[in-house]
Design goal:
This protein is an alpha+beta fold. It is built from 10 helices and 10 strands. Keywords: FAD, Flavoprotein, Oxidoreductase. Belongs to the acyl-CoA dehydrogenase family.
Length: 383
Amino acid sequence: MAVDRLLPTEEAGELLGLVRDLCEHELAPYAAKAEETETFPREAFHTLGKAGLLGLPYPEQYGGAEQPYEVYLQMLEEIAAAWMSVGVGLSVHTMTSYAIATFGTADQRELLLPDMVGGELLGAYALSEPQAGSDISGMTTKAIRDGDHYVLSGTKSWITHGSHADFYTTFARTSADPKHGISAFHVPASADGLSFGAPERKMGLTGSTTTLVNYDGVRVPVANLIGNEGDGMRIALSALDSGRLGIAACAVGLAQAALDLAASYALGREQFGRPISDFQGMQFLLADMAAATESARSTYLQAARRRDLGRPFTQQAAIAKLVCTDAAMKVTTDAVQVLGGYGYTREFPAERYMREAKVTQIFEGTNQIQRLVISRDLLRSVR
């Protein structure tokens, strides 16, 4: 069922039509097989790039579509509903490109952004480490200045697109200062000394490759430093605010797909001589699923509109990530219940939706971390 969206411009409405057509013909038909075979959807990202969808929020002068986040996130939701691994990949790529787009020099933007938003380059966001996930200050990957280069050494973990990306927005320690000793770098995949662990064996999003990334004396030019030395923490947290909105939108797309599947099944499945949709218990379950999905959508849109207006949105992004991903977990689980025994089989995608929903409560900051962000922001504002 197509979501009746409220979009700010006629251009956005035309973009929605393009996205829906692409989802119907280029993404949805291939999702189940690719997830089953754990096949990375690189061709899907090329398709998105050719359609101008890898740079939706970025400036037109670099090949982007210069759309407000309110529009970008709704397009992302549509893509995630068709194929979650691709939706998450688009969100990660957009977040990865954010560092150059927002903090890069004019030369860096001119040189790199056109291929980033045009689909020639696919990005990965290398922040987490085996012992430094939620606690960024625990980072141990180092970048040591050596003449006109930095030499990077260390290991990053849980890296989406690991071994498939063309560049890695990498955060490394340039001094011992816990908060101001981290810097950001653009690291091309071709750099000597860059290697990857075996793909993680995950319960969901199996089409989206996740690996360790090893930096063994990787040399990158000083020109690849993003911002100034010590700006890495600020760049990382700023990118994560926007990235959390991307995951929130993906989670709502997944919930919408599960809701659509459940409603369709309930109409067609008969028991006791009647469609199960006729039974009040089923109607109430579907109503709760619809309410959770719609309210979650409103939450991420509210945060996006604040971002578009230049208003602070850190707390709202954390709330959106928390609410939307919890809603996705509930709605996908309920979808399995609606389908009964069939929901527990791979004949229908309900079980895949449920497996995919779980990780949305974990990455881009666990939902426990979101509660910390929300409470700290709240208490700071009332002191």
